Protein 1
Amino acid sequence: MKKVLMKGNEAIAEGALTAGCIAFFGYPITPSSEIAEYMARKFPLLGGTFVQAESELAAISMVYGGASTGFRVMTATSGPGISLKSEGISFLAEAELPCLIVNISRGGPGLGGIQPAQSDYWQATRGGGHGDFQIIVLAPSSVQEMLDFAMEAFDLADKYRIPVMVMAEGTLGQMMEPVIPREKVTQFIGKPWAINGCKDRKPNIVNTLHLSPEFLEERNHVLGDKYKVIKANEQRAETYWTEDADLVVVAFGLMSRIVKKAVMEVRKRGHKVGLIRPITLWPFPVEHIKKAAETAKMFLSVEISMGQMVDDVRLAVNGKAPVEFYGRIGMIPSPEEIADQIIKLAEREGF
Amino acid sequence: MKKVLMKGNEAIAEGALTAGCIAFFGYPITPSSEIAEYMARKFPLLGGTFVQAESELAAISMVYGGASTGFRVMTATSGPGISLKSEGISFLAEAELPCLIVNISRGGPGLGGIQPAQSDYWQATRGGGHGDFQIIVLAPSSVQEMLDFAMEAFDLADKYRIPVMVMAEGTLGQMMEPVIPREKVTQFIGKPWAINGCKDRKPNIVNTLHLSPEFLEERNHVLGDKYKVIKANEQRAETYWTEDADLVVVAFGLMSRIVKKAVMEVRKRGHKVGLIRPITLWPFPVEHIKKAAETAKMFLSVEISMGQMVDDVRLAVNGKAPVEFYGRIGMIPSPEEIADQIIKLAEREGF
Amino acid sequence: MDSEKQVLFAGFGGQGVLSMGKFLTYAAMGAGKNVSWLPAYGAEMRGGTANCLVTIADDEISSPLTEHPGMAIIMNRPSLDRFEGKIKKNGTLVINSSLVDRLPQREDLNVFQMPVNQIADEMGSPKGANMLLLGACLQKTGVVTVEQALEHFGIIFKGKKESIIEKNREAFLAGVQYAKENW
Amino acid sequence: MDSEKQVLFAGFGGQGVLSMGKFLTYAAMGAGKNVSWLPAYGAEMRGGTANCLVTIADDEISSPLTEHPGMAIIMNRPSLDRFEGKIKKNGTLVINSSLVDRLPQREDLNVFQMPVNQIADEMGSPKGANMLLLGACLQKTGVVTVEQALEHFGIIFKGKKESIIEKNREAFLAGVQYAKENW
Amino acid sequence: MAKGKVRFHADECKACELCVNFCPKDVLGLDKHNINALGYHPVTDLLPDNCTGCGICALMCPDLVIEVERE
Amino acid sequence: MAKGKVRFHADECKACELCVNFCPKDVLGLDKHNINALGYHPVTDLLPDNCTGCGICALMCPDLVIEVERE
Amino acid sequence: MKIVAQRPESLTPAKFHYCPGCTHGIIHRLVAECIDELNMRENTIGICPVGCSVLAYDYFNFDMLEAAHGRAPAIATGIKRILPDRCVFTYQGDGDLASIGMAEIVHASARGEKITVIFVNNAVYGMTGGQMAPTTLLGQVTTTSPYGRKVEETGYPIRMAELLAINEGSAYISRMSVNNPANVTKTKKSIKKALQTQMKGLGFSMVEILSTCPTNWGLGPMDALKWLEENMIPYYPLGEFKVKEAL
Amino acid sequence: MKIVAQRPESLTPAKFHYCPGCTHGIIHRLVAECIDELNMRENTIGICPVGCSVLAYDYFNFDMLEAAHGRAPAIATGIKRILPDRCVFTYQGDGDLASIGMAEIVHASARGEKITVIFVNNAVYGMTGGQMAPTTLLGQVTTTSPYGRKVEETGYPIRMAELLAINEGSAYISRMSVNNPANVTKTKKSIKKALQTQMKGLGFSMVEILSTCPTNWGLGPMDALKWLEENMIPYYPLGEFKVKEAL
Ligand SMILES: Cc1ncc(C[n+]2csc(CCOP(=O)(O)OP(=O)(O)O)c2C)c(N)n1
Ligand SMILES: Cc1ncc(C[n+]2csc(CCOP(=O)(O)OP(=O)(O)O)c2C)c(N)n1
Ligand code: SF4
Ligand code: SF4
Ligand code: SF4
Ligand code: SF4
Ligand code: SF4
Ligand code: SF4
Ligand SMILES: [Mg+2]
Ligand SMILES: [Mg+2]
């Protein structure tokens, strides 16, 4: 199909529609509001549902209700909104309800700023809610991927009965790039567990309360086993020039493109530098990092945060090489700045 | 003073009162409600403020308002309540408002069960909210420590202008043990930043909005630097028999007492086993673990979760020794069960 | 007496098993022991089962938990089904035979039975069932002595009406009497 | 023309700098280039400054960001203060002299000035200021040609009233004319 | 006067006595000689012949213990 | 009729013309010959002698641009 | 002999876990009977709250969903918007609906969301052991108002029916009570009317039902009914507060 | 010559960041003037919302606190309970107060919290670029109601003043407008009355103020005032809805 110039936020919305999403429940927040606005324009024409919820709490609860009917539904917000949704996300994870949650992330903590950030990494991959659970987290790096990953997210969500988050820096939501539209999805997995009236079958129940400790533990193992399968099957990353790299930079999202340019620059100057770009933040691409750790002398995690993913890099490297960190907050460092950092490191370490 | 038999929840409340806490804002939830109930009984007699908030969101916001006046204030809840408070906690951290937040934790995810758990570890030490921030997290292991750590928490909170969480398994909140009451605190740090009317001074502002990326970054560095100081100064742990230990078990909270008994048992049978009990979950006692990793052949993290603290143990051990995990959910394993596990490991590894 | 005793109390939510345990805890603390009282709190739900574990020791209590209490006081049938297998070898099992219609299958246990609800009903104080059984237990096992328990009656029930304390004392003593006569 | 050009547009929130950039992006895409348009979105706050960066390349765009654009179109004084130092060496600087009351301090830059607001006011279309300046820039620099831009006018303003499109086209052409005459 | 008959799922009775109190014919009472699996003296019909089958007992029983039939 | 005088913090004027429209004496107008630092034609008193110092302009100005004095 | 009272089809055989004399049980039965009588069992989706009725999914014999505390109306919205021809109702306590879930209920009502809310007001938090609710009466002793609820500290009990009746989106709002046979019968009629309001698409419907909590009130079941009648009904008048007959 | 209009002491010299003709500026000034006239500057604590007025802490010349979105009334409660003799007010937009903050405002009112709420109703989310608010009028076009707000999809605009007046804890509730000089003067009087209600300890007080958002309404400042008068006032009647004179 013909390329169309689109904002990242519009591309995510368009991707969701293409994937057969029939309902959006959300509360406006910069820099994610265009997703809601796009849906508000489209759904009345397409026959889907757009509800501006009274709050993020209500929005994620509407998603809970909507997802339990078996249809594809979504919400979108930014950092503070994810915090408010974290009880709901914990519920969705335990109820194993597939859905798409978008975080077009901005700087924190507190009200913070509306500039791009990656400092919701921990929230997305670990503690975004109480209890032991995980959600799949995809990090696109281009407007095209905003569209594609929205579609991918729904497929993964249905396949594993798990909420899937697409997390992108605010900038990626706001910037425009040409995008190739995709074919509309029309085939979906059956969902016999859905809540839609018990005609010709026994009643279905969607529930997360497990008062018996034994059953609670069993449920946690069911989830845990599922997470193991996902870890085994769904780790995704892109690697560039890692085979001979002394220094492997790890970066995700739009940030990874900046780093890529910097790495290309630095390669030109004769330093053996490579890049690993995690596409799934959870499951974290441990295997890609482990492989690189067999030969690399050092790792550098570059993030738009005070250093969060660097923990996961360290866990994967497991002491095989030093792992350094470089981060900015509220702004995306330029390729030049990253190149400078890499060269400084390379010169310090002598490679 | 004379020992008094107290529930853990009552001890925490009593500790807070002893530390000069003058206001409690909370919303009931099992297994933490007795803290609120204790305050509801006491404050009308003592002249403090007890408000049952309409929700956890409101409760943490009242704490935000209360803490900004410069007085010692607190809230208490359990897992789902912390999720609902996570936006507010991010705000408190950025506004650098000292306060006490209690999580008497139960099993999740979702509504889960009301049985004890440690599966809010990640939420407490990492992603419990958007943006880059940390709070100090203390994990008591006895009813006496419930009282003492509540006091300690207020001191740390004031000293570093940071929210401090006391996190304890539900069981610890519910169980009774004899407790030695402490002397009432009457001396407090001055708080010139407090919001209490601008008589004879310039207006004060409590705020977390930083629209300029540069200033947002600066604020994150201010926080980051503070966190470094806390990491350097406040790591706390108890160690038992680690000097000669082949296997070091790591466990916190009430769980650590069970493990201690198991370790004693196993020592009797001739295996060289030791225990590290993190008292501060954040800052995690990296130094204690590192030290033990100089000699230990293996680590075992025992948690009432699917495995969360084990990440921190691995990060601290940094590949120097394998780190294993044993966990239960919804129930606290017995000393016998832990002893069995340790022996199995010891026999497998031959130490 | 060992250096550490653990007693499990189990029954329906409304049967006062938690108070039974607390009573024992207070009494033991009064007698100079280290103690802990640990409920399996299920109070968020009505009509469930309830149980608590009391640990009494001469030294510091490292673990207030156990899977194998030395003694179990069982107020209803589901609790027997659940806990019979857990009691320590050669441990003690006390059964409320009003609501438990079977005997344990294990043969190593010292078993004592008492139709607690009937006796309480007959005494006209159905709420005293738990104190009845507790009195009997202490009389028989001496975890703490009956005298020690009686000494702390006032402290334990502090704030309660005198008539209520009296009713409880009566039930307790009736239990003591029952044990003397029947066990 | 290089294989990759980056143009910065900067000014007040209401001056249409974002649309200027979008216009250029559409035009370049229409001309078969790889493009990206990246706003420094400050729209959550009113009355702030606004800027956007357009990247136009023959190959894949790895980084849509830069600190050193080759060309900057500056609509007000604060933007000049902020970005003057960032422009690439020997780069191009286009200034709205109606609202910028100083010249750059750097001497390596190619500087073009235009009193955009005055001209727009005189034309009776104060909202056309941005298109005026854009027309002038394209005429002068050929990032995309004036013809390419005009070709995509209809597509870019799709859905807008014909009269509005016409006003914009007029302003754009007036800018082209101005550049021809003055730069 | 209509003739009625009440049947009980006595195992589910919690002895709240709402039925007892609201029965206009004083048909019902607790069976002091029995304790059900829940530990309560369950409901019983002390004066079955008085029952008119009005259904009030079932209307007020929170635990669906009572089934009522009427001629 | 009372005599008034208006003074402006012209740099803060956003040319919204609320004052212009509400002034009962048509005293005010925008200064088309000036552009202030915010990029607007700021308010000015076109007919200063008409001013009664009624204060309505200041009452309606959202940006505290206008100070009014009255005899 | 014909059967005049038996277990409705819309209830499973599971025994209620409620305390003796707790009127949650009566209300469950009434809801089930209405759904049976409207012949909607296979078409109904119920949402239970966090509160003593959290286990209602075990009792109602149709598709059920258990909500996070207070969020039932938003969940109902998510379902109803996607399945507009289903009968969707929430069952909520006073803590759930009037405290933590205040925003959700007010907005569901304002939006005219075509759902039915069964609001069980027992003036206390039952499940968590008897804390004060927004509907706790002045002077009432609870574990968090141990000296009796005082205006100066906690303000006034909220009258939800009156509050929600203000919203134009509310099509049917009533307050009923289950303290005696006559009121139980009226309550049932009102529930049916509310469900019919929903199915006719008229807007939001809610029946507030005054209910007892013998356990946390510290009263026997009969005394609890009496306390309800003498204390709750005077502050919470019964009746229909909004009846939209048609659009 | 005597000065009849000048900058109040309770405003800092900072320039407002609001759009041309946005009446947030007028309302700021009125609040500041009232506090000056009541001589309470050094005794006042203000709380700004998330919304266009988020930066109000830069403008008010007394102790200020910036709240999380919607939570201002709870924050005010936290402060006022600890410092009962201070004058504590919140300044909130319609998204902040009537959407995400619904629970907090209803409960502050129900509790009779002795705070004052300045509620700026401009029928739209200003700060985030013009999305629908709970107070957006039927038919009104916003970025999330691009075809005009429709009853069937989004229900009815909420009348907060009327809703909160229901609560017994509310001591003073009014709705005012700043669309012309006479109404601006009335608004100021009402704000002063609300603050006095607080200081007398009578209970919760709120002034809802109809305000313009020229930018997101897509109208010039004067046209915006006219639109307000012709469209908002008919749906949101002005007046005092609750006036408790004494306890
Ligand atoms: C987020 C959250 N907060 C608090 C709780 C604890 N909680 C469970 S039920 C309940 C109150 C129930 O009261 P009500 O809604 O009146 O129902 P009732 O039990 O009286 O029928 C509370 C506070 C929870 N489960 N989740
Ligand atoms: C938790 C959270 N959700 C959403 C937002 C985004 N947001 C900022 S202001 C606002 C609405 C403001 O509208 P209103 O309260 O009407 O104020 P106005 O700007 O119109 O004065 C929203 C949704 C946020 N900052 N935080
Ligand atoms: S049916 Fe009527 S008369 Fe018969 S037992 Fe029940 S209430 Fe009494
Ligand atoms: S009302 Fe029901 S539960 Fe209560 S006593 Fe009668 S039959 Fe038993
Ligand atoms: S004071 Fe009155 S007359 Fe003078 S300019 Fe202002 S509005 Fe006009
Ligand atoms: S009202 Fe104020 S801002 Fe508007 S034009 Fe007049 S002086 Fe300028
Ligand atoms: S606690 Fe109260 S509401 Fe809950 S089941 Fe018991 S009586 Fe009913
Ligand atoms: S966006 Fe609207 S409310 Fe916000 S400052 Fe501009 S005009 Fe005022
Ligand atoms: Mg209740
Ligand atoms: Mg608004």
Protein 2
Amino acid sequence: MDFAFTEDEERLRAEIKAFIARQLTPEVKAQLIAEREGHGRGPLAAAFFRDIYERGWLGVSWPKQYGGQGANRFAQYIVEEEFYRAAQLVIGGGGTGVPAVLAAGTEEQKRYYVPGSIRREISFCQGYSEPHCGTDLAGIRCRATRHGEIFIINGQKIYTTGAQAATHIYLMVRTDPNSKRQAGLSILLVPMNTPGITIRPLWTIQSDPPAPPKTTYGEPRTNEVFFDNVEVPATCLLGAEGDGWAVAQRGLNLDRVGAWRYLISVMRDEDIVNLIKKDEPPTEGLRQDPRVRDKLAELWTEGQVCRLMTMRSLSLEQRGGRFKYEGSAEKIWAPEHGVRATEAISQILGPYAQLLNGSPHAINNGVFAHNLLGAFQSTVNHGSVQVMRDQVARKGLGMPKQRN
Amino acid sequence: MDFAFTEDEERLRAEIKAFIARQLTPEVKAQLIAEREGHGRGPLAAAFFRDIYERGWLGVSWPKQYGGQGANRFAQYIVEEEFYRAAQLVIGGGGTGVPAVLAAGTEEQKRYYVPGSIRREISFCQGYSEPHCGTDLAGIRCRATRHGEIFIINGQKIYTTGAQAATHIYLMVRTDPNSKRQAGLSILLVPMNTPGITIRPLWTIQSDPPAPPKTTYGEPRTNEVFFDNVEVPATCLLGAEGDGWAVAQRGLNLDRVGAWRYLISVMRDEDIVNLIKKDEPPTEGLRQDPRVRDKLAELWTEGQVCRLMTMRSLSLEQRGGRFKYEGSAEKIWAPEHGVRATEAISQILGPYAQLLNGSPHAINNGVFAHNLLGAFQSTVNHGSVQVMRDQVARKGLGMPKQRN
Amino acid sequence: MDVLSDEQEALIQRTAGEFLAAECPPSLVRAVEKSEEKYSKQLWTKFADLGWLGLCLPEEQGGQGLPLTYLGLVLEEVGRYLAPLPVHSTMVPALVLASFGTPVQMKLLERVACGELLLSFGIVERSGRWSTDAIALSGRRDGNDIVLNGSKYFVDNFRIAQKCMVAVRMFGADGGDEGPAAVLVDTASAGIHCEPLLTTAKDGESVVRFDDVRVPQSNRVGAPRQGRAAVDALMDYASVFLVSQMQGAARRAMEFAVEYVKHREAFGQPIGAFQAIQHMAADMVNAVDGTQLLGREAVWRLSRGLPARVEVAQAKSFANEKCLMVCRSAQQMHGGIGFIAEFDLNLWYRRVTSWTLRGGTTYEHRARIASALLDTPGEVRLGRALELPAAAPD
Amino acid sequence: MDVLSDEQEALIQRTAGEFLAAECPPSLVRAVEKSEEKYSKQLWTKFADLGWLGLCLPEEQGGQGLPLTYLGLVLEEVGRYLAPLPVHSTMVPALVLASFGTPVQMKLLERVACGELLLSFGIVERSGRWSTDAIALSGRRDGNDIVLNGSKYFVDNFRIAQKCMVAVRMFGADGGDEGPAAVLVDTASAGIHCEPLLTTAKDGESVVRFDDVRVPQSNRVGAPRQGRAAVDALMDYASVFLVSQMQGAARRAMEFAVEYVKHREAFGQPIGAFQAIQHMAADMVNAVDGTQLLGREAVWRLSRGLPARVEVAQAKSFANEKCLMVCRSAQQMHGGIGFIAEFDLNLWYRRVTSWTLRGGTTYEHRARIASALLDTPGEVRLGRALELPAAAPD
């Protein structure tokens, strides 16, 4: 039992912080924001990423033989945390694609995707949900038919966030047309520039006006992706054919934990405390209000539980253990904390909490209002809290399945 | 839409209050408590009940032809509320037996049970639950076999509160041995002195020390009742043979609403406010604590919702309407409010909230501590809040049943 | 006692609902969000022509003189269909005029009843607080005029209204504080600056600055001694009719969600067959029903002229938490789709988030309830109305 | 960083658990409730003989000198089996002695380690408040003595302890206030009156009155300047090890309930197959796990000598609400049977209700957290420890 980072880890954190203080200039930040808004990568941003790359922080926990640093899960967490805090950059090695490639890929796939991702030449979007099945992935219909050494893909995906910028899609398809539920699914890694792929934007309630940085589920856009006789070589297959469910499960578990998931759930706790403690108009006086103080202490404590559950997941992973229920449990606690916090904060701030980004008099660029628009999404995406509770009860506690 | 009692109803309330102020002397009160503790009825208590009887308040809403006053549901509510508040007496016409007799009984049964109940010569305990089925009454096994003009009853009931004092048991039995679930059940009205009935006390966590008045689920004792070849005439049948489920449902619905259910959920709200506003040791100073004030206002508002839901049920009944979901909804809200209130109050009172009846330094005879022991029972008894939620969703909103 | 609607009440509510169901589809709501005016003039005219605005105004001013409870029912429907109409912002000050106005001011109600005169009102200032104590905008008496200086924040529909009822702190010519008062101001007066806000509701709130705005003393609402009472009424009407709207909107969001989960299949059946979804729905029912009961009781008390500050506070504090929960649960039950801008459900969610933050926060309303509970003599009892002490927070 | 138990920690906890599983059945817990002493002397002897008491005491005094985290794990098991042993009331003051005691006082730990010396401690007074400011029991210096006057409320196991560590307010012979201090008092001293309380836990709390009780100055714990630090430590240990017990007990109640619903049939299947019951259970898991993580972090910080007042406050405020929720849910999952006295589950429920009310309420602990958040300079960040300002409430 050890609740502190090691000296090495603290040193890494200090290095990153110093780097960010030095290199993340307002100009770089502006180009990063422009890139996120779809205006392509500016030269300063490119240089910034090159510098990060050279320090080995892109994919810090990935194996050295594929260009990573072979560092542990805590080093990865530190990189992720500092860059996400500083500029909402998702850096360090989590996410959808590469961890699954490392777990299930062929040697060739590892040699291709891992270094490419580290150089940020390759990026993945996630092709899971379909219009008729959001949470229930076992109902997937998008099919890939094998014809010798190629697959032909037909179908549709939805909520494919980042499809417009990704080089590849991490795609779950049904390869056995006669299969049902989890069986007969496979994962394909498909280049987005393959002919027959069409992307249609879905604008979210965060698009007009665009949500400010640090908003939970502040993405202005997600997508539908259509596959019309898309032909890819069979080498795109990740893991065995028909083994897609198992390949995806581990990825999903990792997706439900880690720095990003933690931070989007708790940054508002820090923001509201730091706002209230400034004690300036229009929130002056709240600092001394015992009701507000009590509520902030409650939220803070819940936020600490988010942090500690994240550390528990990292500890488990670092030991090489598998989650029994911990990932699902965290994916209940953190999003619901986010919702509770957001709604409680709105009652503390009163009418100011309804002001969106760009409105006169908006507090912190309207982040608290945009959180109201985004917080509940976190209880739905990547496995709803209802499904997560089922899993905690069934897998964690061994409770029986309902029969009729 | 009218949220006030009528002048007549207010006059009735004033009469009852005046009666109580005059007649409910400390001596009478002491005899009532002694009676509740199983020491039989004292002469003063008997006179007190005779006076109430003469004023027509026992069964005030029951039909005149059977000795009632034929008053409306609100008059009944007022009688119930005032007597329960004054001395935790359940008077006025609610409860398990007579309403069902009035709804489903034969003329002969009405002539026997209604006047007898008004004179308090007849009283019912409720024979629903069995050891293997608490909430799921459709699983009842206690069976009554018909032999011509008699039934022979064998089986067991549990949580039969008040069995030791009741003259009759309102008993749900399976009359068709081949039936399943709701079908084939019947209601029998069985005199408790019939040979073959054995009562075994089940002492509750409120028994040692005994809970003080106004405790939610403060009963020190409930019972198991065993039926060993108990022979009763077929005239004991209430409603048609095999129709027991329907007969019981309406009774259960009425059991889930009304003054008693409302008051056991909210009396603690009044008690804590009245305690805090006295501003005396050991709770002095809390009156000015904004956190406590905020919480009390929240509880009070929830308590108002309990009251208004009760008024809604009475309005519906008074119009002769049937509940769609309202009874079940109230039976979620009020008990869960009771739990929230009890637990919140305990954190306001701190260590004093753990002191039981008779302990030195206990506040209000330990009622807040005993509520901690009893409050959750209210979410379980007479239909758990889980079953109630099912009913609101299915019957109220028409949501579908799960299939496999 | 009968807390259910009677036949006439049910009829009027149903009629209003049917009208809005036909005339106010979500596409209109959405179009108005993008408009400059933030209301539909066409719908307003139809609405007014049907007499809905005059429902509870005095018969002498062309109204129908029905109790306020009817307006509450109509506003439930306005909320239900998110009707982009300045009913709330117009009727709240109109009702204050109906209670406190001078004969000349009462005359204005004729134009309100027929839809000609749009009103707005300003209470909250920079602090954001819903409290008479926080009213600092000064109305200094100067000859026959009152000179207004200060700002009102979060003023709804100021830009389309001809007049605004402004809660001010009056000062005599000698600078003496004369307490709160309500003053009617022409929105076109010199010295007024209006800055539109962008809210989650995407409706017509603004910040309005008053720089030496002059209005005649006769624009003060009611007699000088009634200033505080008029401001109290303005705040109570504003809060309680927001509750009507919120409840109507939340109920609609719940109905959408229940309908959706009855048909949306996952894991081999309609997700509405799952107990977790059913129980979420059951809690939504109690939340909207509880809001309805508290809200209607408060409006009913106002309609009878009974003290109702505590009941208003109960209703709004409860509605703030519960209606948001209902709309959030409705979004959750819809999964990802509710997050997509073009899907209608979020119109309801976005409005209710805003409405929970206007007309007083939960903290503010609970402070008032607590004062009635704890700063008064005698024991409390549920079912017996509480009165506020003179020094209660507001 | 590794927040999980390491092998040795897991081994020690398992061993303690196995010992108590064998030696401390619910029947013993129930029997002790009815006893005068409110603890099992026999079990205490066995427990001490196995060396559990000395686990984290200094090696010089016969202890094993392990970090405090080990005691936390053992107390999780004590809570889990509701062991009717004065471990908490003895070890809390013992640890204060280990940190602050004079050499003579340290010698007492030898007798603690072998189970010979039972201790108790008194903090709270009539106000019921968990706060140094609320300590009014006076310790007036008089020659070589300290004269104690006042009362301690809710003192656990006073009647069986030989010594009690009392938090007092010291006064010089001249009457000058010298601040808080901890003083060791023989429980048999003249002038002590003990009045047993009857709590939901049915354990050994009392109110203890001190009328001119004389103790030598050498009984003061630690150096004069360390008085406040010693009292702080006494309070923090008391709170955080209660969290260990509560978490162990709540986890056990959860396990009982999960086991019960797996087998209890209704509506044609085990009720544990119903989603509503499963989701209740999932929330119970997060509640006990959250308590465990917060509690262990706080104990770990104490074991490292790091400031931990905020972490203790986090753990206790969270535990108060969550462990009660878990035990209440366990009762609900058992339906009517949990309400019957002879059914074991309510032993857990009744103890946890009491423990949520001792060692500081949620309000009190949150006030401390809020002070660290808001009354300090600079921005806060999760993951960076907070420090309390000097003037924080406690």
